[in-house]
Design brief:
Strand order of the largest sheet: 6-7-8-10-14-13-12-11
Number of helices: 3
Oligomer: single chain
Number of domains: 2
CATH architecture of the largest domain: 5 Propeller
Structural class: mainly beta
Strand content: over 45%
Largest sheet: 8 strands, mixed
CATH class of the largest domain: Mainly Beta
Shape: globular
Radius of gyration: 22 Å
CATH topology of the largest domain: Tachylectin-2, Chain A
Number of strands: 29
Helix content: under 10%
């Protein structure tokens, strides 16, 4: 047991080293959305789907509560391993592109007319775009050890671009596919060493910026942006690729999807989701619920707005461990306290002191905001 607690404290020590850049929006409805795998913002509505194991359904969700508000069935589809969703002006595309073993010969993308989707009868019929990778010659099953898995899909001009999840070399390959129904060879167009596994991609409406998210071998979530892509080039990584930004959400939250929902004069605002997961340390487990997050990107630099942590030096938290009352050396604009599973317990604004008598004994993570500065501290209730 001592070893287990040591590992848990090390894990939360890592969380306190660097502040996350995303804001926790809400838990997603469980168990219906535990396997959320793609996100799409369309008609001011957030749409998601699950990966393998669910029916062929799209779910519209309330972004404040995480609850399902509408379910749409694709009548002629099967959810073998749905991994991403994207759109253009006239169609929604759902990628049945997951391929953990590298041996699938039935990869496809479902193409749904927006007019059909907007009918509100909760059923749609899709055209089917089937494909195989032009440079894949070996279809031997090799679970989580090939470069033929994929979890990213965007519409780019007259093409669909598939972003692979390279288990073998931790890079990403980008393949292009025509948007027409039928069977196609996917052509390799671009490559980049992301030093991790890409799990979600989105693109701005004018197709000038691309956003990628994923996680590393240690399950640390990260993000990249791409902009200034040369005109008419499918080699999207020939544009300007941002530095890798880690810790976008706390480690242990397995990010799966990303979608842009707002552009202001100085920010691009995106939703990110993670699926339900469990981290195991011997006989001990730490559960992580399926969640929705918001992340912001600076419009001018196309880099994440990494919180300023200088305020961390000036703020003292005491006593810590505490019993009933947690005091702060100055008033904070916001404090949010999470338990070990990442569930939000308390949120308060403009406080210098918190009464936490009813909080259970244990370890928690507190997120503070002062002006535009954000940071994280570990707190412990001892009784």
């Amino acid at each position: 047991m001592k070893k287990v607690f040591t590992i848990i404290f090390l894990l939360f020590g890592l969380l306190t080293i660097s502040s996350q850049t995303a804001t926790d929006k809400t838990d997603l409805q469980t168990p219906a959305l535990d396997e959320t795998s793609g996100l799409l913002f369309y008609n001011k509505i957030l749409i998601t789907h699950n990966d393998s194991g669910d029916d062929a359904n799209l779910y519209e969700i309330n972004t404040s509560t995480g609850n399902i508000i509408r379910m749409v069935e694709i009548t002629n589809a099967t959810n073998v391993d749905w991994e991403d969703i994207t759109q253009d002006a006239a169609y929604i595309y759902v990628g049945d592109i997951g391929n953990n073993n590298g041996n699938r010969t039935d990869l496809k993308i479902y193409k749904i007319s927006k007019d059909d989707y907007n009918d509100m009868d909760d059923i749609v019929t899709a055209d089917i775009i089937s494909y195989s990778y032009a440079d894949q010659t070996d279809f031997t099953s090799n679970p989580t050890n090939t470069n033929w898995d994929a979890e990213g899909l965007i519409s780019y001009g007259e093409k669909l671009l598939v972003f692979t999840k390279n288990w073998a070399d931790n890079e990403v390959n980008v393949y292009s596919i025509p948007k027409t129904s039928g069977t196609h060879n996917a052509s390799l167009e671009s490559n980049y060493n992301v030093n991790g596994l890409i799990t979600g991609v989105d693109i701005s409406p004018n197709e000038s910026e691309i956003y990628l998210t994923g996680y590393s071998s240690s399950e640390a979530p990260f993000m990249y942006t791409i902009h200034n892509i040369p005109n008419n080039s499918l080699d999207i990584f020939s544009g300007i690729t941002s530095d890798k930004i880690s810790n976008i959400v706390p480690i242990g939250n397995q990010v799966e999807a990303i979608t842009l929902f707002e552009i202001t004069t100085n920010k691009h605002r995106l939703y990110i989701s993670n699926e339900k997961s469990v981290i195991r340390f011997g006989s001990a487990t730490i559960p992580f619920t399926a969640k929705l997050w918001i992340i912001e990107i600076d419009t001018d630099t196309m880099t994440l707005n990494v919180p300023n942590i200088e305020a961390d030096i000036a703020l003292n938290i005491y006593p810590n461990p505490f019993n009933k009352i947690l005091k702060l050396s100055k008033r904070v604009d916001e404090i949010i306290i999470y338990d070990l599973s990442g569930r939000r317990i308390i949120k308060q604004n403009f406080v210098e002191e918190l009464s936490l008598e009813n909080l259970n004994k244990g370890l928690y993570v507190a997120h503070f905001k002062i002006n535009n500065s954000k940071f994280i501290r570990k707190i412990i209730k001892n009784k």
